[in-house]
Specification:
The complex is a heterodimer.
Chain A (H helix, E strand, L loop, with lengths): L6 E2 L5 E2 L2 E12 L2 E12 L3 E5 L6 H8 L7 E6 L2 E2 L5 H6 L2 E3 L12 H7 L9 H6 L3 H19 L15 H14 L4 E5 L7 H17 L3 E5 L3 H7 L2 E6 L2 E6 L1 H5 L2 H8 L5
Parallel strand pairs in A: 5-10, 5-11, 8-9, 9-10
Antiparallel strand pairs in A: 1-2, 3-4, 3-6, 6-7, 11-12
Chain B lengths: L12 H4 L6 H21 L2 H27 L7 H18 L5 H20 L7 H21 L12 E2 L4 E2 L2 E2 L7 H24 L1 H11 L1 H7 L3 H28 L1 E2 L1 H4 L2 H14 L4 H25 L4 H22 L3 H15 L5
Antiparallel strand pairs in B: 1-4, 2-3
Helix pairs in contact in B: 2-7, 3-7, 3-8, 3-10, 3-12, 3-13, 4-5, 4-6, 4-10, 5-10, 7-8, 7-10, 8-9, 8-10, 12-13, 13-14, 13-15
Classes of the chains: A alpha/beta, B mainly alpha.
């Protein structure tokens, strides 16, 4: 499969060319090798899962993509060109948004303010027009509020838009965090365990939202998840990591039958 | 009963985002403004202006400034007194260098100078947080006071080492110096107080305010969203110092008239303003005003009650005042750690449902 060519998924969706490519990434913390020589690509419009047992290096991988960690070796290619080492806040402006494994919302702000904060990269009034407010700053605020409200509608959190985030239950917080990431209208959305700690209904809701986001906005999604049922249902292609190495890559069916993957999850008998 | 939002529908995002969304609040705000601008100037006397109104207005500006930095952006600062001194000395130098320019412009320029100094002392905030940043700003406090004491250029080589405000005017009306009218100084400070209040409100409700609050609540997530942390913190330092500088300039030029820097802008002033925003409510515009009112009015009320009503000697009342204010602060913070603003919010929630709470 060439970089620019796409493929068609089992359910008939067309996947485009490569958006982001990891080329031989190695990441070390002192003597610990968190990621060892991993390469994989993420294609436009697909849902790409990264799975693996605890400590496999999945979150580190996501942190490399979002610019928190700079790998010692290897290159991150974004839209056909190698990406120089960037600050995390510059990554946001390239159209990459993410959520966190442990919710990282702004607890003191309302849901609406959290979502509006997600639109920061699209708002660029200077301090003077903001101080005057009437006119340009207000117009910009209203225009962005409309987009924020669309996302609030989309994720069905209208009733809590003026509630401070600190008062919300866990499941809703996860949803607000997704809303905040979506507000930036990202090209690539990184989800770090979007369903951790949820019950079955909340997982179903979240899965539906992830599929809808991918379907309606055409957002490319890379997600880390431990619930295998969810991963196998949602994702188009799966990367499997174990001890910092890649042990499998392919469609859910290919991965499911991969002996290395089965060994990593179930353990191997030593004889 | 009358405190209702039923029937008060918002049909546009502009309406929904206004400062006082509830009609009753909005009208009360207009009423307060009308009284402050139209009624008070005619009845204000020297005692009312100097004991209550001027300190309240000026401390409210300082509290708004510090609240932006500490309450909204989460950067603790103990340098408020030092930054007020920068405003005062900048204003003094400008007043003496350009006597014919309106006092209005001097005060704003003094704020601008303070903003630059604030940014300079805000630079360490990228690396250090919390208590350690507080100590770094404490260094600013002591350094600035030392600087203004030791470098004669700042006090124009006067023999006493003090600075005293010469008479300066706005539209021909004296607002500084010995021959001022109470109503003129009051209106001058009121205009600045209203101006800073409006600007601060506009900044905190928009993009910049959300950037600050994002840094305060979760700086890593803020960065991932596209907030440049250095820029966010430095703008907070700049805006905050701008307001604090204005309040320092007014405090020196309009309120006191003559200032000895170590006495007036010492560490006590930093703590006083910090107490104001903690008691008033961190991250709340109303809290800045409420805290300033609380700490300005309480001593006056205690003194009136002690001396005039109970007939105690003044020195005993002065000591009692310290004890009572101190213990009230402690009691207050135990009962409501989020300050007067939160207390008011809770009351308002209840008032909305009263008299049928279920």
């Amino acid at each position: 499969m060439k970089d620019t060519e796409g493929y068609v998924t089992a359910d008939g969706r067309k996947i485009g060319g490569v958006v982001m490519e990891m080329k031989n990434i190695t990441l070390r913390f002192g003597g610990v090798v968190a990621i060892k020589d991993i390469s994989f690509d993420i294609r436009e419009g697909e849902i790409r899962a990264i799975i693996g047992p605890n400590g496999a290096g999945k979150s580190s991988m996501l942190n490399v993509i979002s610019g928190f960690y700079v790998p010692q070796e290897g290159e991150v290619w974004f839209r056909g060109a190698p990406r120089p080492p960037v600050k995390p806040y510059e990554v946001a402006r390239q159209g990459i948004a993410r959520t966190f494994q442990n919710i990282a919302l702004f607890e003191g702000m309302t849901v609406l303010d959290n979502v509006m904060t997600g639109r920061l990269t699209q708002m660029n009034q200077n301090i003077l027009t903001q101080a005057i407010w009437k006119g340009k700053a207000e117009a910009e605020e209203v225009a962005n509020r409309e987009i924020a409200e669309k996302i609030i509608d989309f994720l069905e959190i209208q009733s809590i838009r003026k509630t401070p985030v600190s008062r919300l239950p866990y499941g809703l917080k996860k949803r607000v965090e997704l809303a905040r990431a979506l507000a930036a209208e990202p090209k690539l959305l990184l989800l770090d365990e979007p369903m951790a700690g949820m019950n079955v209904e909340e997982k179903e809701d979240m899965s539906r939202f992830i599929l809808d986001v991918n379907d309606e906005f055409g957002t490319t999604i890379a997600l880390i998840e431990h619930d295998m049922g969810v991963v196998m249902d949602l994702s188009d292609r799966v990367v499997v990591m174990d001890y910092g190495k890649k042990i499998g890559d392919g469609t859910p069916d290919e991965v499911r039958t991969n002996q290395d993957v089965i060994d990593a999850y179930l353990g191997v008998a030593h004889d | 009963m009358f405190y209702r939002e039923a029937g008060d529908f918002k049909t546009s995002y502009v309406d929904d985002g206004q400062t006082f969304p509830i009609r009753f609040d909005r009208y009360r705000y207009y009423a307060v403004l009308a009284v402050a601008f139209v009624v008070v100037p005619f009845i204000v006397g020297d005692y009312l202006a100097n004991a209550i109104l001027l300190p309240f207005l000026i401390y409210a500006i300082a509290a708004i400034g510090l609240n932006i930095l500490t309450g909204y952006c989460g950067q603790v600062s103990l340098g408020t007194g030092g930054f007020m001194a920068v405003g005062a000395y900048a204003c003094y130098k400008l007043m003496t260098a350009f006597p014919e320019v309106s006092m209005f412009i001097h005060v704003i320029l003094a704020g601008g100078v303070t903003a630059l100094v604030g940014v300079l002392f805000g630079l360490p905030s990228l690396r250090i947080k919390g208590f350690y940043l507080a100590v770094a700003t404490l260094a600013a406090q002591f350094f600035l006071v030392w600087l203004f004491n030791r470098v004669p250029w700042f006090y124009n080589y006067s023999a006493s080492g003090q600075i005293s405000a010469p008479e300066r005017t706005v539209f021909g009306i004296a607002v500084t110096g010995p021959n001022t009218e109470a109503w003129a100084t009051y209106l001058f400070c009121l205009i600045f107080c209203l101006g800073t209040g409006l600007v601060a409100r506009n900044l905190t409700r928009g993009t910049l305010g959300r950037t600050w609050m994002a840094i305060r609540d979760m700086d890593i997530a803020a960065e991932i969203i596209g907030v440049n942390p250095l820029r966010a913190k430095l703008t907070a330092f700049a805006v905050s110092s701008f307001f604090v500088g204005i309040s320092g300039a007014l405090f020196f030029a309009v309120y006191l008239g003559a200032v000895e820097v170590g006495e007036v802008f010492g560490i006590q002033k930093s703590f006083l303003v910090l107490f104001m925003i903690i008691i008033g409510g961190l991250g709340s515009m109303f809290g800045s005003f409420a805290g300033a009112a609380f700490l300005v009015l309480l001593p006056v009320v205690l003194k009136l009650v002690g001396v005039n009503v109970l007939g105690f000697p003044t020195d005993i009342v002065a000591h009692l005042q310290l004890i009572i204010v101190g213990s009230l602060i402690v009691v207050f913070l135990i009962l409501e750690p989020h300050g007067i603003a939160q207390l008011w919010n809770v009351t308002r929630e209840k008032l909305r449902l009263w008299p049928f709470p279920h």
